[in-house]
């Protein structure tokens, strides 16, 4: 399964260096242009499912992407919202200023990110492939059927089992691609979780020093190990804005909402 995590497009508060958190700000014109560039880049991607934070800047980004995927219904979830920063929201952060007491703590943000991601993965555990012995048994039964007149109901049962086996095989062979649009501090928290807690691997091409730009892609590939009952994963990209190559000088590097404390 490939999970395309995307940070929302640019807002005026991003430009002004204003803390947003749960403040519901829309995209600005540049943010819509960024989102349209990303949408064009992903238009041929066979998206199976799409999620977004309910905050306007993320939701609008997701909707622009899904203009090219009209059959995909957007799912909203509070678990993907940006970190709540309390009385700090709506103003600039002072140099060295930490999150206020009424903000969501870094620990609580990590718990929220962890709970959402665990729940998300639990809902996407693939069907366990049937053992090779089952396929051989099916083959033997069919051969036996050709030589003996077995009851119709028994034959139908064999056909049903074989169809189920083929369905499981086909579902597991088709790699699902899922879009999730969120926020800078949320994605930075998820990055630390998958690398340090889940011990996901990192592709050699990934540069972790790359900023989490607006509309940047964080791509994760995950596979479920049925024998160990765990997810294995690999970070395939971080801060990827190839769709904005000619606009890099207009992009904001700082994630203002990524506050310590």
TrEMBL record:
UniProt entry keywords in alphabetical sequence: Hydrolase
Residues the record lists as binding substrate: 7-14, 57
Tagged with keyword Lyase: no
Residue ranges of the region described as Disordered: 128-151
Gene3D superfamilies, per database record: Phosphoglycerate mutase-like
One Gene Ontology biological process: regulation of pentose-phosphate shunt
Single Gene Ontology MF annotation: fructose-2,6-bisphosphate 2-phosphatase activity
Biased composition regions of type Basic residues, renumbered to the chain: 136-149
Pfam families: His_Phos_1 (PF00300)
Residues at the site labelled Transition state stabilizer: 183
Positions of the catalytic residues: 8, 82
GO (cellular component) term, any one: cytosol
Name listed for the protein in its UniProt record: Phosphoglycerate mutase
Species in which this protein is naturally found: Kwoniella dendrophila CBS 6074
């Amino acid at each position: 399964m490939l999970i395309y995590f995307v940070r929302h497009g640019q807002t005026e508060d991003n430009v002004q260096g204003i803390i947003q958190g749960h403040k519901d700000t829309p995209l600005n014109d540049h943010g819509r242009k960024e989102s349209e560039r990303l949408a064009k880049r992903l238009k041929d991607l066979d998206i199976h499912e799409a999620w977004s934070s309910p905050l306007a800047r993320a939701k609008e980004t997701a909707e622009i992407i899904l203009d090219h995927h009209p059959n995909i219904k957007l799912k909203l979830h509070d678990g993907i919202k940006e970190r709540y920063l309390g009385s700090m929201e709506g103003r600039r952060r002072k140099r060295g200023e930490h999150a206020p007491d009424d903000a969501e703590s870094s620990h609580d943000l990590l718990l929220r990110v962890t709970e959402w991601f665990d729940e998300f993965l639990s809902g996407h555990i693939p069907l366990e492939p049937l053992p090779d012995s089952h396929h051989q048994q099916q083959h033997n039964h069919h051969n036996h059927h050709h030589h003996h007149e077995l009851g119709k109901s028994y034959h139908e049962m064999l056909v049903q089992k074989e169809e189920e086996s083929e369905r499981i095989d086909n579902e597991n062979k088709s790699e699902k691609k899922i879009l999730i649009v969120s926020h800078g501090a949320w994605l930075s928290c998820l990055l630390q979780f998958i690398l340090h807690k889940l011990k996901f691997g990192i592709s050699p091409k990934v540069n972790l020093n790359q900023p989490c730009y607006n509309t940047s892609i964080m791509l994760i590939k995950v596979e479920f190990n049925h024998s160990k009952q765990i997810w294995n994963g690999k970070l395939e990209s971080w801060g990827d804005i190839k769709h904005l190559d000619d606009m890099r000088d207009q992009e904001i590097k700082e994630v203002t909402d990524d506050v310590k404390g």
